[in-house]
Amino acid sequence: MGGDVLDARGVTVGIVDDHPVVIEGVQTWLAADPRIRVAHVAETVEAVPDGLDVLILDLNLGGRLVLDELARLAARAQRVITFSQFTEREMVLAALEAGACEFVAKNEGRAHLVAAVLCAAGDRPYVTPTAAGVLASYPRPDSVALSERERTALLWWFQSMSKASVARRMGVSAHTVEMYIRRARVKYAQAGRPAPTKADMLARAIEDGLVRADEITGYSSAASAPR
Fold this sequence. Notes:
The chain has helices spanning 2-9, 20-31, 67-75, 89-98, 109-121, 129-137, 148-158, 163-170, 174-190, 198-207, 218-224; strands at residues 11-16, 36-42, 54-57, 60-61, 64-65, 80-84, 102-105. It is of the alpha/beta class. The protein folds into 2 domains: 2-137, Response regulator (Rossmann fold, 3-Layer(aba) Sandwich), CATH 3.40.50; 148-224, Arc Repressor Mutant, subunit A (Orthogonal Bundle), CATH 1.10.10. The strands form 2 sheets. Strands 2-1-3-6-7 form a 5-stranded parallel beta sheet, sandwiched between helices. Strands 4-5 form a two-stranded antiparallel ribbon. The longest helix has 17 residues, at 174-190. It is globular and about 50 Å long. The protein starts with a helix and ends with a helix. The model is unreliable at 1-8 and 218-227 (pLDDT under 50). Pfam families: GerE (PF00196), Response_reg (PF00072). It comes from Actinomadura yumaensis.
């Protein structure tokens, strides 16, 4: 959906959490940004409608982890942001592996949640401090080695630059930038760690120490100010 979601009709968001006070708080946070409209609120995942741009999902509903439901929603192309008080490494990794596009800890507050929503709706990666810490500390015996040109192309692409802008900055053609990104995807697929989306690629690059989360500065600054 890309930038058109933000420019044309705003972002429709669903919230699933079994604590009414959390739902009320999140609704208040989101209502402060005119680009966001809450279109669905529930305490279970059974009736999540189609067509939401982003779903904010508590990982623990009624005392039960809903990783299977998260995977089912992600499989139908629903963008899911997990919003959880559980921030252990295994939990963060499990949520991302199940298909969450972002992980936001409940103590990370409004700014990170709103930025994650806007970035997810625009199919742009966003990394919170919690997720960055987990990904950067996770040992990978199957790390992928990228060339410096491949790493640079990925980094500038992650920084919300278009591939054409990356090409101009690198002094190469857009086709060459596409080749760098495609080559990186092939390397991850060959290592058994496929990265079909931009968010997947960013997570892999942070896991392997190829990119630092604090280098991805364009996303939070672009998403922080309502239009």
